Each structure stands twice: as structure tokens, then as C-alpha cells.
Amino acid sequence: METIDSKKSSNELPPDQISPKEVINRMIVFRNLLMRSWKLIAVCVVIGGLIGFFVDMNLDKRPTYTAFITFNLGGGSGQGGMGDLGGIAGMFGLGGGAPDANIFTGENFMYYVVSRPIITRTLMKEVDTLNNQKDLMINYYIQHSGIRDDEWEKNDTLRNFRFVRGKSPATYTRLENQALDDVFNRIKGETSIVQKDRKSSFLTLQTGQHSEMLAKIWVETLLKTVQEDYTEKQTKKTHEMKDLLVHRADSLGRILGKNESSLARYIDQNQQIVVAEGQLAQTKLTRNSQFLQQLYYQALSSVENINMTLIKEAPLFTIIEPVALPLYKEAHEPYAMQAGLILGLMLGLVIVFLRQAYFSIMHS
After folding, report:
1. Is residue 183 domain-shared with residue 243, that is, in the same domain?
2. Quick check: bond before 322 cis, omega within 30?
3. Co-location of 229 and 154 in the same domain
4. pTM for the full predicted model
5. 96 and 146 fall within a common domain
6. Long-range contacts (CB closer than 8 Å, 24 or more residues apart) made by 285-289
7. pLDDT per residue over 329-349, tens digit each?
8. Could you give the CA distance from residue 173 to residue 227 in angstroms, rounded to a whole number?
9. Has residue 15 been placed in a domain?
10. Tally of domains within the chain
11. 96 lies in a domain?
């Protein structure tokens, strides 16, 4: 007896191990379970495949072209009250001290680039199309972006709509404002600007479009608009001072011209007169002309100086990496049906397992 018991104990496996025979028995049981439940598994697979099929049918299969342009914003420095752009590098957190609280500082500049005024101004610009013809950027976008087949699929009025060149957005009709809003909301989501690296001042402006040329033209036109608007805002006070000085120079020029004409007529009419009163009037006109000449030349010199100040103040947009064709192309392959079949199979197996576990618990 002791010998038999000792043999039994030697043949028994530890509780944390399973014998090959037990593994085979469990595989047979699982196979039989699958064979009995194949209809349920098949239904789950078919449902998953159908869901994936409909997802693939609604998936946008058009390729997306990504265009990016990397640039650096450098600035000049004005003199005195004309403005000072010497701290433009500090807008990216590169300079010391607290940043300036203006729209061109830090994250404000990122928002400014894709703000509604900038994007609207860009959309209203004329661009060269493939046929060497000029058209509004917004019309070119409507034609090639796919917005007609997406947002405006059921609106025939918008599908056939085109903006008129030379019309101010302030005078747009309700339909024009609706079309502009739809284009703005779509293109803003397709456009982004990021800092290339924390340690550099390089910025990357990028977009993703279904048309390769549209993506290229859009980022290039947007950057030009940002440069124009940025320069206008940064040199606004200097331009106002220049306009004042130009107006002053023009006024002095007109007064000087009238005084010189009066002096010339007086000399012509009084060549033979030697009366002291006549010579006094001539001397007065001569003195006025000389004084006005000095003021006029000073005004012209001030205008020239302020033109030089404008050049110094104007920020410099240096393109580091221009848009290069061909653009990166991302194809959207339909994989939803394959994924649906796999997920349906897994779901069916889980349901079968839970069902068998439930029956085992209920009959135990």
C-alpha cells in the first residue's frame, strides 16, 4: 500500500502545473464549444465586417498633401520715438526680462497668424492659377479644396457660388458672409503654425489640402499677407509721422512757390525804381523766400530720414525652407472592413467564453 501510494504521489503534478493530457482535453472541449457556437461567431464577424464596410464607404479616400514653409522673423530698430523692433527675438522667449504684452509676443503671434482678419485678407488676395490667370484665393480654394462636395454637397446655391473681385467684405451679402464663414472655419482647421525648436526662432507654417498646388499657394500667400500686415502694424506710427511731414513739405513747397513767383513779378515790374520803399519790399520777399527754402529743405530732409527709419523698423521675414514640390502625400487606405472582421471575431469568442462560463456557474 505504501508503495502504491508513493507511486501515486510521485505521478501527481504540482498544483501550478498542467499536464499535456489536460491541455489536449481543454483544447478538444474548446473546439467542440466553437463548433457548437459557430453561428454566433459568424454573426459577430458579419456584423463587424458590415460596420467596417460602411465606414470605408464614408471614408474620405482623397490623398492629403502637406505643405510647409519654415521662416525666421528678424527685426530692425527705429530711432527715438519712431518705434523699436530690436526686441523681436524676445517674442519667442529668447530674450531676457518680461515679454512685451502685444499681439506679436509669444503665443499671441501664433494666434495672430491664423486669426480671422489675416485669413480673410489672404483669401481676398489675387493669386496666379495654373492657367496663368488671376483669381481670388477664396475662389481657387472653393474650386480645389473639396468644400463643394463636403460641406456644400446639398446646397446648389453655394456649390455654384463665386466671389467678385474688388468687393469689400464690409459690403458682403448674407450669402457671401455665409460662404466666407464656411471657408474660414474649414481652412483655419487645416492651417497651423508651430515653433521649429525651443532653442531656435524658426517657425513652420503648414497646411494639409487635397490639392497639391492649393497647399503650396495657400501657405505662400498666407506668409506674404502676414508679412504685409505685420509691417503695417509695426510701422503705423512712423507712417503717420511721415504723412504729417510730407503734408508739411507740400504746404511749404506751395507757399515757397507763391512767394518766389511774387518776388519775380515784383522784380520785373520795378526794375527802374530806386525808391527805398520798393527796395524794402523786394528785400522782404527775398528774405521770406530764403526762410521758406530753409524750412522746405529741412522738411524734405526729415521725410528722407523717416524713410530710412521705416526701412530700419520693417521686420525681415527670411524663408529658411521654402515649399518644395512634390509635397508629402498621405493616402487614406480603407482598412475599416478588415478591422471590423477581426474585432467581430474577437467579440464572438468573448461572448462564447462568457456564455460558457455562465452556464458552468449555473450548473455547478
Report:
1. no
2. no
3. yes
4. 0.64
5. yes
6. 285/259, 288/259, 289/256, 289/259, 289/260, 289/263
7. 887 666 777 888 888 888 888
8. 29
9. no
10. 3
11. yes
